[in-house]
Amino acid sequence: MIDPFGRAITYLRISVTDRCDFRCVYCMAEDMTFLPKADLLSLEELERLAGAFVDLGVRKLRLTGGEPLVRRGVMALINRLGQRIGQGLNELTLTTNGSQLGRFADELVAAGVKRVNVSIDTLDEEKFRTITRWGRLPQVIDGVMAAKAAGLRVKVNAVALKGVNEDEFDAMLDWCGRHGFDFCLIETMPLGEVDQDRTDQYLPLSTVRQRLAARWTLTPTDYVTGGPARYFDVAETGTRLGFITPLTHNFCEGCNRVRLTCTGTLYMCLGQDDAADLRAVLRGSDDDAVLRQAILDAIARKPKGHDFVIDRAGRAPAVARHMSVTGG
Ligand code: SAM
Hints:
Low-confidence stretches: none
Strand order of the largest sheet: 7-8-9-6-5-4-3-2-1-10-11-12
Bound molecules: S-adenosylmethionine
Largest sheet: 12 strands, mixed
Structural class: alpha/beta
Strand content: 15-25%
Order of helices and strands: EHEHEHEHHEHEHHEEEEEEHHH
C-alpha cells in the first residue's frame, strides 16, 4: 500500500478497547464516557480486519488501547494473529501499561510476541498514583519483571511532563539500563480534552536530550523499530534511549502507519480527523475483496501530516478524540 506521498504503509496499530484500568492525567479525563460495548468490533471482526491489512502488505501489528490486556478474551485474538507471523506478518507486538503482564507474559511469548512497550512515566510510587490516578507501581514493576523473565524484550516509554517527572529521567535511564530495557521519552500531544492545561505539561525533548547528554554518552544510531522514535546508543548501559518528538520535530515524512479503533474506524493520521468506517464495510459484505478496496481507498486519502501546536493561544486540542480512542 503506497499513500499519495509515496510512503509505504506497512504498520497497523489496533486499539482493541478504549477502556483502561488507569486514568493517566494527560490521556483521559477522570470521568470518561466509554463507547457502548455494542459498538465494539468482536474479536473475530478485529481478526478479519487485521488479516485484510496483512494481505495488503502490513508487516507489523501493534495492539494498543485503552489497555489492550483488559479486553476480555484478548489472548484469543493475539493467538490467532500470532499464527500469521511468518505468513506475511513480521511482527506482532503490544503497547501496555504493564498492569496485566504478570498474568499474560508467558502466553504472549507462546503466541509469538517478542517485545512489548510498557508505559511507565515515573518510578516513584506516589507520583505514579498521581499521574495514573488508579495505577499501582509495584503491580506494573512485577509485570515488567514477568515480561523480562518470560523472554520478552521490553521498551519503557515515558511521557515527558514538565515539573512532574523531568527530574527522574537520569534515574529511569539508569534503571532501564540495569534491566536491559530501552527507554523512550515522548512529548505530550494535544489529543482530547483532559482536566489540565497541556501548556503546563509540555516539555520539549530537545532540552531533555541536552540535559541527559551531560551525564550519558549518547551516540546517534540509525536503529529503527518501524515507529517514529529516534534512537541513541547509551555507552554506559549498552541500551538505547529514544525520543518521540511530534512537536519539536514533526516525524510525518517517514510515517508508515495507520490506526484502527475498536469500532472499526480507520484513522490515517493520529493528528487529523479524517477517517474511514471499516465496520460498515466489514458488516456489509463477507467478501474480503470489498474490504481490501475500502482500505485502499482510505490509504489514498492519507494526509501529509499532523500540525500539533501547544500554546496558550490555541488551548483547544488538535483533535477532539483522546489517545485512548485512536490508540497511542
Ligand atoms: N494502555 C496502554 C499504555 O499505557 O501504554 C496503551 C494505550 S496508551 C494511550 C499508549 C501511550 O500513549 C502511552 O505511552 C501513553 O502514555 C501515551 N499517551 C497517552 N496520551 C498521550 C498524549 N496526550 N501525548 C503523548 N502520549 C500520550
